[in-house]
Amino acid sequence: FPHANAFLEGDEGIEEESITQTSDNTYQIIVPNDKTTLNVTAEASKSVASVKIKDDTYSKHVANRAVDIPNDTNTFTITVQAENGDEKEYTVTVIKKYVLTIDQILVNNVKAEQTEDGYLAWIDRNADFSTVNITLTSDKAKVKVGEIADGIGSVSFNIDTSDEEKTLKIVVSSPIDSDEVEYTLRIAKKSNDTSLEYVKVGNSIGELENDTYIVKVSEQTQEYEMEVKTMSEYAKVKIDANDYKDQIDTKSFNLSGVNSK
After folding, report:
1. Please, are residues 155 and 168 in contact by the beta-carbon 8 Å criterion?
2. What does the radius of gyration of the chain's CA atoms come to, in whole angstroms?
3. Residues 170-215 pLDDT 10s
4. CA angle, 95 as apex, 89 and 101 as ends, to 5°?
5. Angstrom distance (rounded) from CA 197 to CA 238
6. pLDDT tens, 131-165?
7. Which of 45, 95, 213, 251 could be disulfide-bonded to 199 (CB atoms 3.0-4.6 Å)?
8. φ, ψ for residue 17, nearest 5 deg
9. Rounded distance, CA 98 to CA 30, Å?
10. Nearest to 61 by CA among 77, 76, 45
């Protein structure tokens, strides 16, 4: 500050850029939403001046105080008194920054998995109605699911899931500013499709004959890589003793000296 340099000590997670001057004698500090106390040190720009925080008594040059910040928005004052008795008051506003993340989503009491695109929940094929429970990381952040439901900290609702798949938009927003984050929840029925899209060895695609894929290759003296892919993007597949993979699996075969494998 021009006459009272105030800064924070001993508070993890508060960066220097979180302190912003909003006018000649007002400042704003952004802190994590779980913080309830700030350890404040206020320093007058001149060593002969005195300074106090809130209603404390004046201290020469430097004052220290732990300031309670129980609310979403909190204010306190720092007052500087010059050697001739003149005073100047600074108002500091502390705003809590909310974490706009989802702790978990349950669909029919089964936890949805987090994917690169959002969240994915599997439901039984006969589940024509489903119950969705969304819990946020912060119990004070706001959550809105399309035009279906909204809440503070969490939300629960029932939804028609008679279609093969349903996509919901979830918006998590701060209760004190315009910050918001959008998430997507896909609710899909468990697939019963176990068919293969293709079986490939090298560059040759197999032909299905009586439930058996036959792949013809040109050489019998080299290593080939086999690749299989399911028709359903959600199905899992494995070759021989491999572990199951999502939709595609591969394995190398050596066909040296054999006519078939």
Report:
1. no
2. 31
3. 999 998 878 899 999 999 998 888 899 999 998 899 999 888 999 9
4. 170
5. 14
6. 999 999 988 899 999 999 999 999 999 999 999 89
7. 213
8. -75, -5
9. 10
10. 45
